[in-house]
Amino acid sequence: MNCCGISSPPEPNPESGGGCCGSANLCIADLSVHYRDFEAVRGITLNIPEGEITALVGPSGCGKSSFLHSLNRLTDLIPGCRVSGSVHLCDGTEITHPKADILDLRRRVGIVFQRPNPFPQSIRRNFEIPLKEHGWKKRDIPDRMEAVLREVGLWDEVSDRLHKSAVALSGGQQQRLCIARALALEPEVILFDEPCSALDPIASGVVEDLIHSLKGKVTVVIVTHNLAQARRIADQAAVFWVRDGAGALVEHGPAERVFSSPVDPDAALYLSGARG
Amino acid sequence: MPRDRSTSTWLDRGFGLIGALAAVISLLLFVWLIRDLVRLGLPRLSWGFLTGEVEDAGRSGGIGPLLVSTLWILACCLAVVIPLGIGCALWLSEFVRRGSPVARLVTGGVDLLSSIPSIVFGLFGMVFFAQTLKMGFSILSGGLTLACMILPLLVRTTLTALESLPADLRPASAALGLTKTTTTVKILLPAALPGIVVGITLGIGRALSETAALLFTSGYSTRLPESVSDSGRALSVHIYDLALNVANGGPMASSSALVLLVLIFVLNSAAVALSEHWLRRRHSFS
Q1: For chain B, what are the domain ranges?
Q2: What is the tens place of the pLDDT at every residue in B154-207?
Q3: Minimum distance, in Å, between the CA of residue A20 and any CA atom of chain B
Q4: A161 Cβ contact partners less than 8 Å away, ≥ 6 residues apart
Q5: Taking CA atoms, what residue in B is nearest to A181?
Q6: pTM of the entire structure?
Q7: What dotted CATH number matches B49-283?
Q8: Fold of the CATH domain A24-271
Q9: Which of A31, A2, A8, A6 shows the shortest CA–CA distance to A18?
Q10: Which of these, A146, A119, A125, lies nearest to B286 by C-alpha position?
Q11: What residue segments make up the domains of chain A, in order of their start?
């Protein structure tokens, strides 16, 4: 049984039933990630509420990123990586189902990486390629691109050089471009894997404000090492820790409660800055 | 005890001097070669030489039909080797696991191919293309033999170009739900294009200067070829023939060599310009 009360995996059909998790957008049940014999993440059960920002915190090497990457099957790209347990979207689509439509799934659950990774082509092509792939009509693409570039506050900076290379932009601009590119596909969830740690403090602040502004529009899961940042933007917090050689979820709940009065002793020491 | 300061300075100067000497010798060799070619070859160069028929076994007349044959052979070679070489490299880099037995087998085979002397390719081409496949001594036989010879070069350069792309391009593309085909064709290939063009220009240089592989395959005929199944003498074969088999053929050999050099230069520049134009067009919205 998973958190949604579904015992047998449903067909990966976006139209199949709705709202099995109540207000949760992602229902994760007993999720474990193995790299060959090494268990990186063990038995995570967690509900990610819709439209809120959930921050995953914890020391390095406790499986946060492995967990995050298993939420849109990017772990499939790593040879020898095996994921068990289940992840459901709120309409019942099982992400971890072997026959799931991975391409559509990755459109619905987008990801932004630590290092900005625009394609080494024009800014325009960075939107045109994924939008075309997911069936947008050519004439609708410019409007869609403009809308998301405005949403990330990049339109005024790049509107006169859309034909120029995206890799010529600054680091912060590149990261906002990557966020816009993920947003363009109208995802339900966006995963952020330490999105600010490769940026300077000013660019980092801009990207943080941007992520904060997504609240209510899209479900956000963010891995961050910056506890102050997590405190500022998160609605929900989940603390990861290494238990018996594998990453485990030791504490989760509303961010305010987790940060002010954590129950788990390791989490308490980590969040107070005494450990980790 | 630390070394005397003046000794270090002298050592640096000496080392710099040796390096400079090597650079000057390299430059001199190049200048000498060009100077000789121009001195011996330029007086006979004219429009008539470029377009005229070969007369008196090459001692007089021009090289018109040979230029046509050379370009035909090159076109046949590139038409086959570009899709084959890039396809093979793409498959090795994107569709099989690096270091897997099948990948090692193919790269090993390709590397082995590149160490085979060109005269052996010539013999192979004669037996396989000319005789077994009954293409005869023809431009097609010559072009295909050259394609076999250049294939490893193109596979290697394309593979290196693909492998040196930023590692995060592939996950970035997968994360957007793009298929492997879209990723390969629309993202990786354009990014690797400059490296691939380097491979193609090197290949053009090798193909145009090749003699041994063409001796037994494309033949000696100095007539203007009417199709790719006609025999046609390549410029490099002509130079070889003039220098070795034709008495007093030296000056004409120099003129032909000068034309060959300019041809290689022009084709390489064209390949680079074309790829730059193509990249610019991809960058702007069509």
Answers
A1: 5-44, 49-283
A2: 999 999 999 999 988 999 999 999 999 999 999 999 999 988 998 999 999 999
A3: 25
A4: A123
A5: B176
A6: 0.81
A7: 1.10.3720.10
A8: Rossmann fold (3.40.50)
A9: A6
A10: A125
A11: 24-271
